[in-house]
C-alpha cells in the first residue's frame, strides 16, 4: 500500500494506492475520489469511532472500507484545513483523538478506549481511539502537526484541544488549569500532562478555540429576523 500526501500543510490531501486485495478503512465523509477498480463497503459501527458521542448525543456513525478489486487509488481529506501525518504501526499501539482519525489499514484494530475517554470527558469533547496492530495509519490535524519527543523532557503539558495522538508508552494525566476561577477567566480548560517516553503529536489550532471565537460573532435569530 503506497501513499502520497500533497497540498500540505494547510490543505493536505491523501492518495492511497491499493494493489488488488488491499483494503483501507476511513471515516465516513473522508473520501474525495476513487478509481473504478476500488469497491466501497459501508458498515455501521458500535465500538469504533465516535461511539461515546453516539451514545451520549444520539449521533450515528458509519465507516467505509475501500477494497481494490483490480487496483487503484483512493483519495481522502479531513473536514478541517490542516495537515495529514502517516504513522506506520508495527505491533504498536497509539491513542488518537477521534476527530483526528482519517484512515488506516483495514487490518488495524481501532476501538474506543473507554478508560481514556472517561478521563478526557470534561466538556472539551475529546474522545480517544485505541489503534493497534500492523499497517499504515493516517491522522489529520486542524492546522499544522508537530511531533514532540518525550524522551527529551521530564514532562510536557498541552491543552487537550491540541492533542492529535500519542504513543502507548506515554503516561498522561488530565487536570484543569488552576482553580475554577482561573479556568473561567483564562480561556483555558483541561490540560494533559505527559510523562514517560514516546511521541506526542500536536495540532497548532484547536477546534474548541475556533468555535469559542466564532459563535459569539454569529447573528442571533431575533437579530436576523429584524433585519
Automatic annotation (TrEMBL):
This is TIGR00266 family protein. The keyword Ribosomal protein does not apply. PANTHER family: ALTERED INHERITANCE OF MITOCHONDRIA PROTEIN 24, MITOCHONDRIAL, TRYPTOPHAN RNA-BINDING ATTENUATOR PROTEIN-LIKE PROTEIN. Keywords: Plasmid. InterPro entries: AIM24 (IPR002838), AIM24_sf (IPR036983), Trp_RNA-bd_attenuator-like_dom (IPR016031). It comes from Halobaculum magnesiiphilum. Transmembrane segments: none annotated. It holds the Pfam family AIM24.
